[in-house]
Design goal:
The protein is an alpha+beta fold. The protein has three domains: 147 residues, Cytochrome Bc1 Complex, Chain D, domain 2 (Orthogonal Bundle), CATH 1.10.760; 163 residues, Cupredoxins -  blue copper proteins (Immunoglobulin-like), CATH 2.60.40; 144 residues, Cupredoxins -  blue copper proteins (Immunoglobulin-like). The protein has nine helices and 21 strands. It has a six-stranded mixed beta sheet. A hairpin with a 5-residue loop joins strand 10 and strand 11. Helix 3 packs across helix 5. It is globular. Bound molecules: heme C and copper (II) ion (CU).
């Protein structure tokens, strides 16, 4: 007899003697109810429960896999349903240990997919949560709705409203197409400030990378979620009237579902409703850039997953320039010599019982801890360009005296207040809108969480300038600071150290 079978046989024998089930130890439904909190980011239960990121879990023990009405299962569970998989304590436990591995083993297919990006590694917790699931039926009252009930727009988008594209109704069929080469922040893609010729179709490709990411000099690490591997995601630059044709790819090696909501786009949750893709899929979204300004874009899957993805790095900016370029408050043309792009992100790295940052090895593993920690609204890190000090030293921005520099600043989540120490905002589009006149001569400007803003300054003195979030605690203690190294001649007329020394 093989060892495994032996253990099973012993289990059955024991259950005959003591009346215990074949599973080694009974779970505790009361404890399981509290474990289930980590499932509610994606699953609802109770009489009025609706499908969320995952299906409703009423009666799931004993239910055919992949069978809850109205839920779009991944191909793996669809196939498993065909093969007759019915959830029992043992299969749910294996699924929770590692959904992908379980489904691959069950189907004997190394490429089978599971959409559930979550694992419950602790065996006792698995038993407890399954014991809790066994107590649930359709007649249970709905679990008290938490904040995670509020999804991003909470709309089941009906693709029927969008219409089917055909060659005859394609407004872009005769338009020139260009591919925009995206670059790493704080740099921005090459672009014309005044548009040349007629509106174009600008093709953009974003690839989601879930990757290890170091946040600070102590080596604090998270599994970041990124567009194209950078935090912030790359800047996109187009002109008003252009069509953006964006290809979003979610490689097979990823664990989570992703999508994109662009604040420059109109309808369908900014595109999020029609771009949600599982690992191994891609989506192509086309939208017309009708509003000028500089805008946030971000991932927005559903419920708690939206702030979770946003606070793991999935924010970027798209700038839509007026076709005839930027104007000052009197309608005169304004041009810049260079543009820099600062992405500010707040992170909420969970801590262990000693107060040390916890470490995780896979995307989604920190989900339950992270949701708890982000609900404190107390970030562990607030940084520019993804890590403390990224835009200082070798990474510092550069300029010359006399150059007019445009700074675009994006924050997907928290309010921020950019300030250039020793300089000013000559022209500031605080809200990001270019159809509103810029404010003049600001000391500090305000960028609302969930938006991008732009400020222009002509440097008049050389030196190392700090560009920071003027909540100085966030800047100095949490990391929201950068440097601009400016070369040129010092102007004594503007400032001179007249004397320093003992009191005379
Ligand atoms: C990050 C979101 C997420 C979390 C957290 C999550 N799940 Fe899931 N779950 C899913 C998704 C998505 C599916 C559908 C999988 C598929 O179609 O491949 C799923 C499917 C399931 C299924 C199969 C249901 C069916 O109808 O076939 C079970 C059982 C399940 N989850 C249990 C749990 C439990 C228990 C927890 C908490 C310990 C949990 N899940 C946490 C997203 C999640
Ligand atoms: Cu995402």
């Amino acid at each position: 007899m093989k060892i495994k079978q032996g253990i099973k046989a012993l289990g059955i024998a024991a259950s005959l003697v003591f009346g215990a089930p074949a599973i080694a130890q009974e779970g505790n439904a009361e404890a399981g109810k509290s474990v289930f909190k980590s499932c509610t980011a994606c699953h609802a239960v109770g009489s009025d429960a609706k499908n969320r990121v995952g299906p409703v879990l009423n009666n799931v023990v004993g239910r055919a896999a992949g069978s809850f009405a109205g839920y779009k299962y991944g191909t793996g569970l669809q196939e498993a349903k065909e093969k007759g998989l019915v959830w029992d304590e043992e299969t749910i436990s294996e699924w929770l240990t590692n959904p992908k591995k379980f489904i691959r083993g069950y189907l004997g297919n190394k490429k089978a997919k599971a959409k559930m990006a979550f694992r419950l590694k602790d065996e006792q917790k698995r038993r407890d949560v399954i014991a809790y699931l066994k107590t649930l039926s359709d007649n249970e009252p709905q679990e008290k709705a938490g904040a995670n009930d509020v999804s991003h727009g909470d709309a089941e988008f009906n693709t029927a409203v969008m219409g089917v594209p055909t060659v005859s109704n394609d407004p872009t069929k005769d338009m020139e197409r260009v591919k925009q080469k995206l670059v790493m922040p704080p740099f921005v893609p090459e672009h014309d400030q005044v548009a040349k010729g007629a509106p174009k179709v600008v093709e953009i490709e974003l690839v989601v990378e879930e990757k290890k990411w170091v946040l600070d000099g102590d080596g604090t690490e998270i599994i970041a979620l990124t567009f194209n591997g950078s935090i912030p995601a790359p800047m996109i630059v187009v002109h008003e009237g252009d069509y953006v044709e964006l290809t979003l790819k979610n490689p097979d090696t990823n664990i989570m579902e992703h999508n994109i909501d662009l604040h420059a786009a109109t309808g369908a949750l900014g595109g999020a409703a029609v771009t949600t893709i599982a690992p191994g899929e891609q989506a192509v979204l086309r939208f017309k850039a009708t509003k000028t300004g500089t805008f946030l874009y971000h991932c927005a899957p559903e419920g708690s997953m939206t702030p979770y993805h946003v606070t793991h790095g999935m924010t970027g900016a798209i700038t839509v320039l007026p076709r005839d370029g930027l104007k000052d408050d009197k309608g005169q043309s304004l041009t810049y010599d260079r543009m820099y792009y600062i992405g500010e992100n707040d992170f909420y790295v969970p801590r262990d019982e000693n107060g040390d940052f916890k470490n995780y090895s896979e995307a989604g593993e920190d989900l339950a801890d992270w949701i708890e920690s982000m609900k404190t609204l107390t970030p562990s890190h607030v940084v520019f360009n993804g890590r403390v000090g990224a835009l200082t030293g070798k990474g510092a921005m550069k300029a010359k005296v006399g150059e007019n520099v445009m700074f675009v600043h994006v924050q997907g989540n928290r309010d921020t207040r950019p300030h250039l120490i020793g300089g000013h905002g000559d022209f500031v589009w605080e809200t990001g809108s270019f159809s509103s006149p810029p404010l003049r001569d600001l000391e500090t400007w305000f960028v609302r969480g969930g938006s991008a803003g732009a400020a222009m300054y002509t440097f008049k003195q050389p030196g190392v300038y700090a560009y920071l979030n003027h909540n100085l605690i966030e800047a100095v203690e949490l990391g929201a600071a950068a440097h601009v190294v400016v070369e040129g001649e010092w102007d004594d007329n503007l400032m001179k150290q007249v004397y320093i020394g003992p009191i005379k």
